[in-house]
Amino acid sequence: MGAKISRLKLFMKIAKNVAFNLSLLFFLAVVSSCHFGVNSSYNAEIPSVNAEAKPTPSVDSEIVITIAAVGDIMLGSPFPNDSRMPPNDGADLLKPAESILKSADIAFGNLEGPLADGGVSTKCGKGKSRCFAFRMPTRYGRYLKEAGFDVLSLANNHAGDFGDAGRASTRKTLDELGIKHAGSDKEQYAWTILEVKGKKIGFIGFAHNNISLNINDLETAKRVVADLKKRVDIVVVSFHGGAEGAGNQRVPKQTEYFFGEARGNLPLFARTVIDAGASLVLGHGPHVLRGMEIYKDRLVVYSLGNFVTYGWFRLEGPTAETMVLEVKIDSQGKFLGGKIHPFKLEGRGILVKDDTKSAIYTVRRLSEMDFPETAPRIEDDGSVFPR
Ligand SMILES: [Zn+2]
Fold first, then answer.
1. Domain extents for the chain?
2. b/e string for 289-320 if b means 16 or more Cβ within 10 A?
3. Most buried among 142, 164, 244, 250, by the most CB within 10 A?
4. pTM assigned to the model
């Protein structure tokens, strides 16, 4: 009898456990289907198996990724001779921005020239009067690392100044230092992926040449950005485009031409890549600052300006004005806010903090003029807010 009762008790216990487990399973199924429902509106292309493995949206929404972005970097070239090399062999050039770059999750810049210790440039042939060809010593690579750079765009009109060998040397130098790079060619090295706070961030580089992905080819841009978005959580698009110089700070809503080259219809390009899945668009190329706008909750920066370009350019007024732009995005790539840290270039290209904060006022003025409906709100202290 006693044995019967205990068997009955055991049976009841098992039945209770089964019932509990079944109800738990049902509860989890309901929760996970809601969770998938929320995620699928953002990431329709991600298969459901991945969606289930992702953290819940409430945890996701707490993730904030900070990206510090700067424009053109050219730390000095011993070609054609040493007359334009920086003081202290370049060791101090990036130091003024180091703390800001290092405190970001990702520090990004446009490396405007190869890291190479020799080679031949076919760029400046006979009869070419207005011609610039640069190469930075490979030993300067470590200054980029020490300053905190995590990823650099090599999609620009100087990364190929010393041909394929120069590009290969740049990649090797950066690979050895553990700095990622994007855009040195359109096939194998168009994009790179970084991982931050459990999120995969893809960087892809476009420029106005045919070695990199071309900024004028919107169909290809759409396709490659959509393809990259399938592999990562967030896509950051870097472009080198637009006409250059102090007279070209405005963003026209049409294709820009400079030296006879088509240099992109930049607002159309930005919208195209965001529609294809990009979360942030970082522009450079004009060597001056330009405005910013917000499209579908994503920030577009039309030109980050010169950052540190030593020895080659006349730096005054708009070409000497620069910034480190800090951008905060959530795990879905939505722009949360940011900060303009104003700097200026003195003399032949020495970076210093700018107490007059002129970069803040310039970017605000240009953003409001060019994008009256879509400019972000920029405060006097450089804080940037979505509208
Ligand atoms: Zn350029």
1. 2-53, 65-119+132-385
2. bbbbbbbeebbbbbbbbbbbbbbbbebeebbb
3. 244
4. 0.84
| Ligand 1 midpoint to CA 167 (Å) | 15
CA of 41 relative to ligand 1 center, distance in Å: 38
Give the least confident one: 15-24, 103-112, 118-127, 315-324: 15-24
Contact 340, 325 (CB under 8 A): yes
pLDDT band, residue 81 (cuts 50/70/90): confident
Gap from CA of 214 to ligand 1 centroid (Å) = 14
**Dist CA 279 CA 67 (whole Å):** 12
Between the CA of 193 and the centroid of ligand 1 the distance, in Å, is 23
Q: What is the CATH number of domain 65-119+132-385?
A: 3.60.21.10
Task: Determine the distance separating the centroid of ligand 1 and the alpha carbon of 158, expressed in angstroms.
Answer: 6
Ligand 1 midpoint to CA 237 (Å)? 16
Give me ligand 1 centre to Cα 344, in Å.
19
pLDDT at 82: 85
User: Ligand 1 mean position to 379 CA, how many Å?
Assistant: 30
Supply 104's token pair. 């970001």
Ligand 1 centroid to Cα of residue 154, in Å, is: 10
Beta bridge partners of 203: 192, 236
Cα–Cα distance for residue pair 235/277, rounded to 1 Å: 7
Cα–Cα distance measured from residue 269 to residue 281, given in angstroms and rounded to the nearest whole number:
10
